Structures are given as structure tokens and as C-alpha cells.
Amino acid sequence: MSIGRNLERVKERIARACLRVGRDPAEVKLLAVSKTVGCERIKEAIECGQRLFGENYVQEALPKIRELGPGMEWHFIGHLQSNKARHVVGAFQMVQSVDRVSLAQELERRARAADTPVDFLIQVNLAREKTKSGAAVEDLERLLEEVVNLRWGRLRGLMTIPPLGRDPEEARPYFRGLWELRERFRRQVPPPHCLEELSMGMTGDLEVAVEEGATMVRVGTAIFGAR
User: Fold this and answer.
1) Mean pLDDT value across the chain
2) Which of 5, 8, 15, 90 gives the lowest tally of CB atoms within 10 Å of its CB?
3) Would the pLDDT of 131 be above 90?
């Protein structure tokens, strides 16, 4: 099946999930996860109107971003080492995986030096999985208190990756938990920062994420096929 048709099917899934809970599908952004995907296939998605892409690895992503040129919005969604922050600022419009104060501060320093603001999400490890990155729930308040003082790094919301399960319903408590954290802390975040975005849900569980309030779903396999 073509990438264009795959995109249509994913958007239909988002729309049906929105309909079930009375949401406007326009509230949910589709981020096409293009890690390991070559530029020719990404171009197919672009030709079908897709403009928002996510990458996990800096070294893989930068040549793609240069080749594909302006007009796209790129999000970094993988674990980011602080020493790679200089490569991310200016190339990516958002970093979804900030999980510690030191990384946020390094992004701030690099963004100021480049005179280029960078948006970011705080990744929360709700399941406390040792194999996954993300701030612990009990550390979130302290992290928020630090990052809202930044000027070049702009907090935009929260992200999570639930444990891999066979049944999409197994992810629901984690998606609901992220929504509850957002509601708990959103009034404590002063402008220009905010907690509007909830990045959660992937190919297998995007409907559940949308039902629980996702504003952005990260979809790779359902668009580009199995890796």
C-alpha cells in the first residue's frame, strides 16, 4: 500500500477516535516517525501533505534535514545526550525527550548562542521502566520549577512512552496519567511556557491515546511500514 494511502488510514483512525470522545480531529497532530526511512520515501509523504516528522538519532537525521530542505517541522524524539544538543538546536524545532535539568539548560545555552529558540517537551517515565528515559513522576514538579526560568528553551508540554503490550488498552492508564499530570501542573507554568501538548500514542495504541487527550501521536510503522 502507498505511503499516501497509509497516511489517509492513520488520519481516519485519529478521526474515528476523536468522534468517540467528542473531540475535533484538528486538535491532534500526526508526527510521522521517519527513523531508518530514506529521503525518497519521506518525499512521498511530503508530496501527500505531511510536514511534521520525528527522528530518534542525530547523526541519521541531520543529512535528511539538509537534503529535504525548508518547509518541514522536525521533532527530536529519542534520548538526547547533552553533548549532542549543539547539533539539535537550529535543525529541530522541538525536542520531545527532555528528562533532566542539565539537558534543558544545555539546550538553553545552545539556543541563546545560535539566536534560535527551541521548543521542548518533558518526557515522563510513568511506568518507571529502567530501559526507558524520562523523568520520574516525583521529580516532575522540581523539573518544571527549573525549566520555566529558561528564555530560549520554551516548554510546550509532556511526552510519554508506555510499556510495550499486546493490548492497546494496557497503555490507557499511562496516557490518562500523563493527562492528569498536565492538569495538575498546568496552572503552575507561567507564560510564555505552557503545558498544552501531550505527545503520546504510536501505531498500535494511537486510538487509546487520542481518547485520553493526546494532542500529538507519533506514528512510524503504520505510515512507512515495518523496519
Assistant:
1) 96
2) 5
3) no
- pLDDT recorded at residue 67: 97
User: Which CATH superfamily does the domain covering 3-224 fall into?
Assistant: Alanine racemase (3.20.20.10)
Q: Which residue reads 521517519 in cell numbers?
A: 34
Backbone angles phi and psi of 86, in degrees to 5: -65, -30
Give the pLDDT confidence score for residue 164 in this predicted structure. Answer: 87
Q: What is the DSSP string of the chain?
A: --HHHHHHHHHHHHHHHHHHHT--GGG-EEEEE-TT--HHHHHHHHHTT--EEEES-HHHHHHHHHHH-TT-EEEE-S---GGGHHHHBTTBSEEEEE-SHHHHHHHHHHHHHHT--EEEEEEB-TT--TTS--B-GGGHHHHHHHHTT-SSEEEEEEE--PPP-SSGGGGHHHHHHHHHHHHHHGGGS-TT----EEE---TTTHHHHHHTT-SEEEESHHHH---
Task: Confirm if 77 and 56 have CB atoms less than 8 A apart.
Answer: yes
Task: Give yes or no for a contact between 117 and 111, defined as CB atoms under 8 angstroms apart.
Answer: yes
Q: Are 29 and 216 in contact (CB under 8 A)?
A: yes
